[in-house]
Amino acid sequence: MRTNPHHRSVDPLTAVRNLGILAHVDAGKTTVTERILYLTGATHKRGEVHDGTTVTDFDPQERDRGITIFAAAVSCVWDGHRINLIDTPGHVDFSDEVARSLRVLDGAVAVFDAVAGVEPQSEAVWRQADHHGVPRIAFVNKLDRAGADLDAAVASIRERLHTVPLVVQMPIGREDGFTGVVDLLRMRALVWADRRDSFEEGPVPEALREEAGRRRRLLEEAVAELHPAALEEFCAESSVSAGTLAAALRELTLGGEGVVVLCGSAYRNRGIEPLLEAVTAYLPSPLDVPAVRGTLGDTVQERAADPAAPFAALVFKVNATATGRLTCLRVYSGTLLKGDAVLDMGVGRTERVGRILRVQADRHAETDRAVAGDIVAVVGLKSARAGTTLCAPAAPLVLEPPSAAEPVVSVA
Ligand code: GDP
């Protein structure tokens, strides 16, 4: 049997993470994003927030600088996973834009300041993410700052966000002496040295063993309380393995029952690798989220994240740039090929897709196709607006991604 070229997937969908970074202004979203792009090699020089070289913190007036402004969605690769970072404004004034970004991402990292803990805007964005049913993990940033206190930040996550924090790391050292973390799953110490981009892994220092053991037991107890099946597995094992604990943490994250908490200092480049590991381990791929729902008149359809299904995508941002009009979209089902005709459900007109771009921080890579689960920008569409559905002309529908208020059961 001949394979249909439309159906070939560029990345296995299970290895895709459409990720948002949610934060109160100043908590460190830009710095975390920069460090991720640096570590994943998407950008070659390490941008610093203060010297104006950051690639995601674009100035809205720099409308002609194409790529920089399109950093609304940046793609990078980490450990065999494609991570698409979708920008979500940190300011509540842009809450429509926040809502639009939340619709197209599958999971998020909420960044908190280790001194301030949960701040009002973080609460607002957290509630929106709850509404859209976006699974989250938390990163308590700025542990190097004077007054940084992981436990106090964790307490504010519990009290103000009404969720169960599942703390998987313990800091090594305080404030200026913050050098690393104990990974409480594997019970290993990860220590960063200044002027090095990676950490050194070793046994938990003698002086920290008792404390690390106590925190590990707290984590196991919290997981067992939320997850009765995990409790059974814990009882069956003579000592709970990292794999069993990780599997339970993933289920709790996907079900929104608790939030995995990690910590570090983005500015000092500490804790970013474990954060990326947690993104790939706990947050969902496009296949793990419910099928998207679409309507046409009175009929309701579900579209699974299947490259072979009819094409359907949601536009979440449009930028006028020197490259042309860039339409950023999330493909929910089917495959889009360069040159394809798509139906714009906003204006009811069919248009042809010119180039398909994947943006990698400081450059863009042209690709010949985008499949279900992908986040890309296309050039050549004249009328599509944010919020518009694009679909195969033969299979029209208006997409309505599921929200927490209206759970949808996947029939994929
Ligand atoms: P955003 O507004 O959330 O995007 O925050 P930024 O990433 O722009 O960071 C706000 C400020 O906090 C900047 O001056 C950063 O240099 C600083 N910052 C970010 N991460 C850290 C950190 O881990 N430790 C310290 N001490 N400062 C940080």
TrEMBL record:
Residues binding GTP: 23-30, 87-91, 141-144
Compartments in which it is found: Cytoplasm
Primary localization class, coarse: cytoplasm
GO MF annotations in UniProt: translation elongation factor activity
Residue ranges of domain Tr-type G in the record: 14-287
Residues forming coiled coils: none
Keywords linked to the UniProt accession: Cytoplasm, Elongation factor, GTP-binding, Nucleotide-binding, Protein biosynthesis
Superkingdom of this protein's organism: Bacteria
Family: Belongs to the TRAFAC class translation factor GTPase superfamily. Classic translation factor GTPase family. EF-G/EF-2 subfamily.
Chain's role: Catalyzes the GTP-dependent ribosomal translocation step during translation elongation. During this step, the ribosome changes from the pre-translocational (PRE) to the post-translocational (POST) state as the newly formed A-site-bound peptidyl-tRNA and P-site-bound deacylated tRNA move to the P and E sites, respectively. Catalyzes the coordinated movement of the two tRNA molecules, the mRNA and conformational changes in the ribosome.
Protein name as annotated: Elongation factor G
Native organism: Streptomyces coeruleoprunus
Gene: fusA
Covered range of the whole protein: 1 to 412 of 691
